[in-house]
Amino acid sequence: MKMRACLIMWAGAALLLSGCWSKMELTERSFVLAIGIDKGEQETFEVTSQIYRPASQFGAPSLMGNKSAYINVTLDGTSVSSIIRNTKTVSGRHSQLSHIQIILISEEIAREKLSSILDFFYRDPEFRLVTSVMIAKGKARDYLKGDSMIENTVGSQVLKQLKFSADLAGRSVEASLLDIAFQLKSESASAMLPIIARDRKSQKNVVHGVALAHPDKVVGRVVPDRVPFLMILAGKYKYGFVEIPCGGQSSGGQKETIEILKSHSRVTPVLEGDSVSARIDVHIEASVGELVCTTVRDMDDEQVYEQKVEQYLKKQMESVLGTLQKHKADVLGIGHKIYLRHPSRWRKWKPDWPERFARIPIEVTVDVHIQNSKMMSFSPFSRSGEE
Amino acid sequence: MSNDPNQTITNLPVSLNALENINRLQAIFRQCDDIAYEHIAAGPEMVCSAWIVYCETLADQQSSSDILSVLQKLEMRRRGNGTGITARTIREWFEYQGVIDRAYFVHENLESVVRMVLQGHVAFFMEHWDKAISFDGLKLETRGVEEPSAERASIGPREGTVENLSMNIGMLRLRLQTPDFKIVKIPNVGPKSGKEVVYGYLDGVVSPSVLQQFEQRIVRIKHCDLLDTTMIEKMIQDSAWSPFPQCRFTERTDAAALALLQGKIIVLSQGSGVVLICPSVFTEFLQSIEDYYHRSAFTYLIRTLRMVAFMIALFLPSLYVALTTFHTELIPTVLLLAITNTREGIPFPSVIEVLIMEFFFELLREAGIRLPQAVGSAVSIVGALIIGQAAIDSGIASPMMIVVVALTGIASFSIPQYNFAIALRLLKIPFILLSATLGGFGIMIGILLLLMHLCSLRSLGQPYFDPLGPFRPRKFSLIFKPDDLGRSEQDAA
Question: Between 20 and 30 A from B247 (CA), which of B83, B95, B180, B255?
Fold first, then answer.
């Protein structure tokens, strides 16, 4: 009996006392939905936390009025963690970081060093590793201001924009904390991050473009119009329309589009003696999106059109590869592939790989298969059988 | 309530002197003004002095005159033989089990006479005879057979039990027309109530060990005054401390017949329409007789629904408390923001909030049960609409909490067995407290303790958590699928 009581006490103590306690009511927490990191004066950071302000349903409606759904707290300091801690002294509530939608890093600071900024986010248990990270042109905190278009808060608005831009338009790339860690820790040590910019004409925030990071800072970027080709090369393209210029003098800059349904790419490093080259095979399943200057009547026409598209895509991809090589950012992971297949060779090459990557010839083969033209007749206003 | 099984009212025999008998009865029935004593003189020349004793409130007034007509008939018959009727001939007639058109009982001691009178019999004493006879003259207005209001079904028989024991057994006999259907009577249960209790089972289907176990326990009821069959549960249950009921109740004759076919033992008692079914296991409480009448695809769905309802009724409030105070990171962002909006400005921690609202809900439920129907609906309107809305408006409770509590209540209503739903209501509170102190970890500890209890619980020696507790994959599908009754009988044979 004594034995049993003792056992129960031990088990109870082992079960109940070995954990940590985190009881906190919802009204004691404040939920941070977005974080913006800017460069402060000298060696300091400016961290902006966007905190959700719950709309209490009590009291007169007039008082609830035009308060925005969030507040931005900007504090400066020398380390990200201490600034986020200090946010409590402003908001008066515990800053809960688990629901952060997006982390914006200004381009200015990202061009200096990424790891010292992001370190805290990997260590803190409240952070999710799937939180998206973005590079902001200009001041990051400016993007957290103002009213969001549709979503409740700016943070979630930006996240939705990113998702749409990456998944359905192919003009951006999704990069979570985990993705970035994987890419920068790989042997290629290069990563792709999405960019948010403010459109001058409409004064709206647009998510497009990709920043190239290597090995620990942002080194360059790929302009939005070229991003689809980069995505296809990297095998991350999901869905979207690609513009194909008509070509020729008479067309006057008109463009047609194809809708890319599926794309697959394979990167193969080719080693010959001491020299290295790479081959990228791209296979694309597409359908006709919009035809302006081409007529596709039969299989032969289709083949001609396919070849035209292939040539154009190849040219674009080669120019994107040129940009990558210029910035020495091996985001396609060619170096990592060499490391996997020829580890001993890699050990020798690793120190000067960025320089070597900038020089290697990369051969691109594009295979486009047009699945359908989405119409029974070959043009909307044609009368079949007339000609 | 006395525990002396040998307690008797009197041990006097029936005396030869009729008047003495009457005096003794009057002493026993003193201050019982509804006992009638009638003196009659029967036979030729009125030589035969006799007394009729009966309870006016139980026996039909007609009964006493019935006796007289019986006597007259006897007289007539004797006259045909040419000899006049005497007291002796009447005595002999009854003692040698002569046939007349009414059933009668011959008594030798006053004890049984008293008991019979209290059951509505008309007792008849005759001068110079040390025996008494009685005729059944019970006439009480009883409820007719109708659909039990607590167990309505959309389809299936509408027959429910009544308060008359023999009628109930009769209805069951009609459903199970086999000599295997055994009915065992335990007469005169309880020193005061003197009820007749009956248990039945299907021979060959019921497990002998269960029956033996049951018969050992049912003896205990001899000493207890029963008002209703439900009280028998306390005598035969395995664990009095468990929140879970170990017996089921029904007022439907088809449900009782089904239980018999599944090898259960049923218990009925005089004056109660409740049929007790034992042994009962956990999963049976989530099943309803209607499941057998629907197509099996629908039964799958509806039983799954009840499982979910069980989970909701037990865990939803505690899950809500755990999620909002410990594990906010588990709530999707948009939902979380909605919840923070509703929680903002509530002065209580969510555990206090949930306890207050659960208390309100239980209060309303308790208030609504006993009120007359007209007032009852007013209570539910005041409770649900006005108090609920006012609680939100005044900032005592958040709308999300009202949703949680209401959903918990609705889920507990959808459990077919009322006594099982009570168990869930009881268990809900410790789970809320556990989740408020230890969060999801506390709920897990609670679930472990609950499973330990369920797995160790027995109902008449049968494992209570049956296809899950001792895990039996073959029987597992019976949780969702109705029993194939034809096959189960073959298995037994």
Answer: B180
